[in-house]
User: What shape does this take?
Amino acid sequence: MIRVFRGVNGYVWLVLGMCVFEDRSIRDVVDHLGLVIEGVESLAPSAIPAARRRLGVEPMKWLFERVAREWADGSPGLAPWRGLSLHAVDGTCLRVWDSDENFERFGKPGGRGGSNDAGYPQLRLACLLNLQTRMIRAAAFDSYNTSEHALAERLWAELPDNSLTILDRGFIDYELFTALVAAGENRHLLIRMRKNMKYEALEVLSDGTELGLLTPHRKLSASNPSVPKSLRIRVVHYQHEGGEPSRLLTTLLDPAASPAQELIDLYHERWEIELAYDELKTHMIERKECLRSRRPEGVEQEVYGLLLTYNLVRREMLLAAQSHGLPPMRISFRSSLLWVRNFWHLAWRTSPGAIPKHLGHLRSTLDVLILPERRSERRYPRHVKIKMSNYPRNRGKRGQEVLK
Assistant: This one.
């Protein structure tokens, strides 16, 4: 077998390159980065997917996880909030190529025609985001039918001790709460409560918040006898101007150590993970209909490549922000991604010894990407901006079988 790529490193660069340059074909990426060994004048189209199969999923998964652990929490100069690192967990979906293999592995959402009626198969992804560095610390993904709760539970082992995790109220789950708290030392949660969520009120604290007791449903206790019998919580009542009364649930019980107003302000930091998904889908994937890969193994490899590339861009943004004494949110992700694309072309074709010099120049010029401060007082109601098409849908062969 003749190998035309530059070893394992060439395979990794191939996957990262196709994630950085989403607007180009994979063949263009190979040509753009010069990934073929010298002396190869023409490259057979079949050599590219063969190279990806030789690399497999595990090396990309290992590389993402190693980088995520090293970088997400290993950034100096970011002071924790009252001794706790801040994280958020949420889920999203990614469409994948509509092939038989991907359909069998990931499945489809339902639609007007019943189950599996969507246009594309989809995978479900959950990420653990460090809210201070804005980097993904861990990720879990599976078929569309896998719940966000199940994916989130896979992430608890990656949570550091002395941390606070902010959750969307879609994650209301007693078993999930107790698993998060018990996963390590001094791990806490903050979540918005549903209107119908009940608890046993024990005491009104000095700041007006309530000390309460959360207990599992009897069905949960019967099905899982090992689940804790109760969880002590603190409930923070608040209401924004023009909004409805709301409640926050937290396991931070001391009002002096974690003031109510700071928790109210802190909860809205959860939105950063929504912005991270927007950066991933809008700016990196370029709002394409689906991922490139036609086989499940390729999809998994591509997802790890996307997450790793996201962290690579975020890492450079963080270093640029720190050099100017600014928070990471003050650097433009879109502009940084474009600059990193230009740097990659240069870095691959230059000598290894010159890369630090070029990288230092890149970071020093990122100051032109500084954004103005956010206007956090802005409020926008949710509404539909694009109406669904009135044209009949092309459901494909599987879609027609569903309708029958």
